[in-house]
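Supplementary Methods S3. Complex input for the iron/sulfur cluster-bound model.
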Amino acid sequence: MDTSSDGRATGKLRVAEMFYSLQGEGRSSGRPAVFLRLQHCNLLCGRDGASWQCDTLEVWRQGQALTFAEIVARGRAAGWLSYLAAEACLVVTGGEPLLQQQALRGFLRYLADQGLRPVVEIETNATLVPTPELDAYVAQYNCSPKGANSGNSYRQRHNAAALQALVRNSKAGFKFVVSTRAEVEQIKAEYIDPYGIASSRVWLMPAAATRAALQASEQQVFALCQEYRYNYSTRLQIQVWDQATGI
Ligand code: SF4
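Predicted complex, serialized as structure tokens:
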């Protein structure tokens, strides 16, 4: 992040897409939200051996670097700046948005300089530690650590320092993509038990990229949530819009 001569934050973010919708997953599901999807990810879910694939891969691989002023101008033109002022939350997603956390902190400071302090949610794969400077602007972390069923190796998907920091942070909830009991046992053994994540902070979400796949596994995952006493998350955007993105 840079600072202009009048002390304002300036800089750029690599942006894949921006749109206004409803939060589709996790504990804020159904809430009006402006989505800011950033480019790039440090994982690649769906490699050999995976039981599901990243459903935004083709989106976060596209995009461009935009100045903070250009992002705000686009938001104003699309109307979502006024939604943020009216208390829609700002969901920063990806890809992996913490790859750009220094610039992201600059952008949130830029919004604050203009009198905009939205409720900010960060969607992260929990492999990076948020800095205190960014954390000061964040209301909620929607962490989605990846299991063996993602196809990423243990070394790629598992960062103990990041997990410990996020578990210590009361703003973080943990959402896991699963379909079967074996997958629940795997994420329980890798994450939930060793890091002492309370069941009230855990969501299980069916692995599904289409409405048909969601319908095929939702009863099973719902029953697993009942059995293990975890929260259930659907995928509202798939339930309602199937494979369309940016809605
Ligand atoms: S961590 Fe998230 S954005 Fe990155 S490849 Fe996996 S599902 Fe896609």
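The chain has one domain: 2-176. The two ends are 30 Å apart (CA to CA).
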